[in-house]
Amino acid sequence: ADYKKALACYRWITISGLDKVDDRFFGARFNTGKCWAMLGDKDRALQTFRELLDTHPDRIVEVARYFADESSLRERIDSIPGFPEELMACCPELFSSAAQGEAGDA
């Protein structure tokens, strides 16, 4: 996959604010974080995932589901030293029993 090209598209959506005003683009910020992670930029990925949760606090279960469905992202996060621990510290609500239970039910 060409994560650099995808990142440019997703960042355009988030920089323009389209993801905040049009619900169809909600996932763009998640995909931006995924691209940063796949490119090995842990800090930008963490910042983007935190921004996603702060921008859409009512969609934590859906975001947890995105993570659950993305095995390549989880594998990449696990391959970067310290990333899993920093993700848990930065975005603890993704790992709450409610988010995990709801995401697992889908």
Describe the structure in brief.
75% of the residues lie in helices and 0% in strands.
What is the radius of gyration computed over CA atoms, rounded to a whole number of angstroms? Answer: 13 Å
Roughly what fraction of the amino acids lie in strands? under 5%
- Gap between N and C termini, in Å? 26 Å
Mean pLDDT, rounded to whole units?
Answer: 90
Largest sheet: none
- Residue stretches low in confidence (pLDDT < 50, at least 5 long) are none
Query: What is the number of helical segments per DSSP (H or I, 4+ residues)?
Result: 8
Given the C-alpha coordinates, what overall shape results?
A: globular
Secondary-structure element string: HHHHHHHH
What helical percentage do the residues reach?
over 70%
Q: What's the count of strands? A: 0
Strand-pairing-aware structural class: mainly alpha
Textual characterization of the structure:
With 106 residues, the chain is mostly helical. It contains eight helices and no strands. It has helices spanning 3-16, 18-21, 28-38, 42-55, 60-69, 71-79, 83-90, 97-105. The model has no long low-confidence stretch (mean pLDDT 90).
Annotate the secondary structure layout:
Blueprint: H1 3-16, H2 18-21, H3 28-38, H4 42-55, H5 60-69, H6 71-79, H7 83-90, H8 97-105
Describe the structure using short key phrases.
globular; 106 residues
